[in-house]
Design a protein that fits this description.
single chain, alpha/beta, five-stranded mixed β-sheet, about 15% strand
Length: about 325
């Protein structure tokens, strides 16, 4: 039986019950005052607008639902539609376009586009723990995608090395299988080294290619080995652990999804698409995470991540830090 036949995808009351069980494991929590006692369920009035999941706090006397303080807040879409969309995005290895969501869920394209961005926001990792703890092996590499409007290169002109393209720096930890990616303005040591240092433990066994960006990193970490792609060296002959094939595999999934599914992405939204691909890669089937478990992980990330139309016109946290 398909997971999409579960009641939460078709029944609004069941959808609220499922989300409440995940976000309120110890019982309802008042959004306004944080109280967990004296909370009652407001019975729907069939003669008026039925509000599923509506609670009333006996302390502050205010009403709330599990939607408040999450990406679902103030959305006109039924919660069951949100859960269907989350399942489709979490289970599609190379993503699913807003147009496909619009057709499948029978909602407007504008709603599907905004819904998808909110779900990507829930997939964005909030963990700040560095990779490489306990001597784990971490591969670091960069890639280029699309066209960077801030590159200063005239439209239609290309420059060797990808200076005219959007730049992505990624880290993949082999042992845990996690990925973490960043959008950067410039691919130089002044930009790359601080990001790598902030996200790697000193115990890391670092693996990179021969790029000059990483030449000075060896002294910071337990170990730093490189492969020379320019000489067609992809795996060290005398040490098969020295390679960057894992992160190259991550980039191949990312680029196939961006080119084949999404086709176009502006720079101000690229960080959210990266968060989506990082999330699916870090919770993939090879790591023992099936589609249902992946949706559950995504749902746990909806709290405290409000996203409004105004904010979609801005860049992500990396840009805010640079401003």
């Amino acid at each position: 039986m398909s997971i999409l036949s579960a009641p939460r995808f078709h029944n609004e009351e069941a959808a609220f019950a499922w989300v409440e069980d995940l976000l309120w494991p110890k019982g309802p929590v008042c959004f306004h005052c944080g109280c967990m006692d004296h909370i009652t369920t407001v019975k729907p009035n069939p003669e008026k607008r039925v509000r599923y999941g509506l609670k009333r706090c006996g302390d502050c006397k205010k009403q709330f639902t599990v939607r408040m303080g999450t990406i679902f807040e103030e959305s006109k879409l039924p919660l069951r539609i949100w859960l269907q969309a989350m399942h489709l995005m979490a289970s599609s290895k190379k993503g699913i376009s807003a147009h496909q969501l619009h057709r499948t869920l029978e909602i407007t394209y504008k709603s599907a586009w905004f819904l998808a961005h909110r779900i990507r926001e829930s997939m964005r990792e909030g963990e700040l723990a560095p990779f490489g703890m306990g001597g784990a092996t971490v591969e670091v590499d960069e890639t280029y995608f699309g066209r960077d409007p801030d590159s200063g290169v005239p439209e239609g002109k290309t420059i060797r090395g990808g200076a005219h393209m959007m730049k992505v720096l990624s880290l993949v930890e082999r042992e845990s299988g996690r990925a973490r990616s960043f959008v950067v303005d410039r691919m130089d040591t002044n930009t790359v080294i601080p990001i790598v240092e902030a996200n790697l433990s000193r115990e890391t066994r670092l693996r990179t290619d021969e790029s000059s960006l990483y030449k000075t990193m060896g002294k910071y970490y337990r170990e730093h080995e490189t492969v020379n792609h320019s000489r067609e060296e992809y795996v060290r002959k005398n040490d098969v652990t020295v390679h960057t094939n894992t992160i190259e595999g991550f980039f191949s999934i990312f680029k196939r999804g961006m080119k084949g599914t999404y086709q176009h992405c502006s720079k101000k939204h690229l960080h959210r698409y990266l968060a989506e691909f990082d999330f699916r890669y870090s919770y993939r089937v090879a790591l023992g995470v099936d589609d249902q478990a992946r949706v559950t992980h995504a749902l746990k990330g909806v709290v405290g991540k409000r996203l409004t139309y105004r904010r979609t016109d801005r860049w992500g946290p990396e840009a805010a830090a640079r401003a």
